[in-house]
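Thread: 5'-O-[(L-methionyl)-sulphamoyl]adenosine complex, take 2
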Amino acid sequence: MSKFYITTPIYYVNARPHIGHAYTTIACDTIARRHRMLGDDTFFLTGTDEHGQKIERAAEAAAKTPQQYADEISSEFRQLWKRMGISNDDFIRTTEERHKKRVQELFRRIRDNGYIYQGTYTGQYCVYDELYVDGAQPGDPCPTCGRITETVHEENYFFKLSAFQDKLLEAYANPDFIRPETRRNEVISFVRSGLRDQSISRSVFSWGIPVPDDPKQVIYVWFDALANYITAIGYGSSHPGAQEAFKKYWPADVQMIGKEIVRFHCVYWPAFLMAANLPLPKAIVAHGWLLFEESKMSKSRGNIVRTETILDVLGADALRYFLLREVVFGQDGSFSFDALVQRYNSDLANGIGNLASRTLTMINRYFRGEVPYPSHAASRRPADDTIAKLAQKTIREFANFFDQFQFSRALETAWALVAAVDKYIVENEPWSLGEKQDEDSRSRLATVLYTSAEALRIVTALAHPVIPDATAKIWMQLGLGDIQKVALKELAWGQLHLGTRLGEVQPVFPRADKSAVERMQQMEDQQRTSVADEVKDTPSPAASTQASTKAQPIAPSVTNVTPDGKITIDDFAKIDLRVGVVKVAERVPKSDKLLRMEVDIGSEVRQVVAGIAEAYAPETLIGRKVVIVANLAPRKLRGLESNGMIVAASLEGSGRPVLAGFLEDVPPGARLK
Ligand code: MSP
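Output below.
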């Protein structure tokens, strides 16, 4: 029996889980399930990444301790995976003792091997990506997320990454190590361009694992996080059972990641492993992003889709099938509720669901619920053999595509068999044969229904890792018991036994009507903002991100308006007006009026959506200083969260907005009072 070890990245606990996270987890779960069916001793790991400055700040903003905050969000991930039936064998949290001790052990080992030294780091850092941005100047944006980097000057520990340039390039010579090819090429050219030593500790905050023998420093969160892949299976433990597990499962067979974290996994991670004399993972596989409304789903953009919404309305299998069938693995793919429901209906309800119900219902009706077998050779037709051959070919092709992570093509192949059997049923009209009592017709009917049921059995077994719930039900309905016991390696045509007694036949994928899309959309809208979504677009003429251009009382419940309509200075002080610098400006798709901007307000970069597209071309705004109402409740415009309002004068008559600005130089974040 061979072993198979697969990992997801561990998810940051600064944001609640969304379908982007579910995508990676589902892909890994599917692979793990297939390997279990192939008889491999499979270990599937996922977990949460809980240390670092980003989490510390997020907790602070939520007025919680980092531990409380991490506990809450980590448990959301865990519960969601449970609800979805994710088959992970362990769930590691980087705040667990077992992890902390073992990370320190790894650090020690690399230090003892001479690859860690003390030095001073001065440069730019992106807290959002927990990334040192080499070569950036103060005020420069992070190349990954576009947020403004922060200047860091620290005494800390460095890892001799530069010592591994040649060895890494040697490792990349294996074409299976980094996939897909495009990512491999990017990594090779990055490493060829030269590697600088990497700071691997921080000293200005404390939410992390202390550096062994120097508790004033905490280990850099990416070192801590990457190590989870070995700490979870026992690396650094003195416990014999854990050591055994590590020996058995490491190196990992597949480490699945999103494309934005390729550098950490394909450069730093293998270098850390080499420095500790540990073997490298066999494959690091990067997938693309799930886009919603044309941009990467993320909390800060306010365009996330929660998994729970889809589970409530269509179930986990629908999401799993959609993501793996619709998105070409490795590339970015768009998510929409329309496309989800369309796929669900065409491939699941009308596809495998319909094939199962019509085939099994006819076996019930014409053969009292027992799988028939053709009684003599004369009842065979070339079409029967065509289906049998196609099924055999499907088993092979499905495996080939699947093993190359081409899930979409694997499913396409399996569903081509579903379509062929559907056509076969229509052409052979078993319902007409069922009306006749002569022996030839009975025999022909038996052949047609046997062929259909056997093809259904094969598709069901192949699709089980992708749609586990529905296929388990179909398997029971076929009278075959527990689908988990299937030995996929032996799957072949002709194994369905004559006389197998069917289970109770019930629809597995009821058709979804149009209201499913609306229901899911509504559920998401309600979640995204507690503020009623009164407008879909900002009406001209305002630069306001708010519902109306008319002056609106801000936080009316806390202002004391005097009888002559005046407010006190204290009331005015409640409005947090700040100087901001526009870093990113772009049109909001399908809107003439809205621009989406990222505005640096000193302490952070805010996404603001404003109705100024008719007055300002986006490129003219980059670098411009503006005034922001920084403490306005967020609201959603065209699905984008707007976190603040840009102040503008509204011209009499045309209503054209004119942005407020400054004649002298002012730093971002300066308060207006
Ligand atoms: N904590 C780090 C990873 C450390 S691994 C040692 C991290 N966490 S994350 O929560 O921001 O993202 C983790 C993974 O979630 C991504 O690599 C990706 O696999 C998945 N995704 C998050 N958003 C996604 C999309 N919008 N689309 C597809 N996958 C996405 O990075």
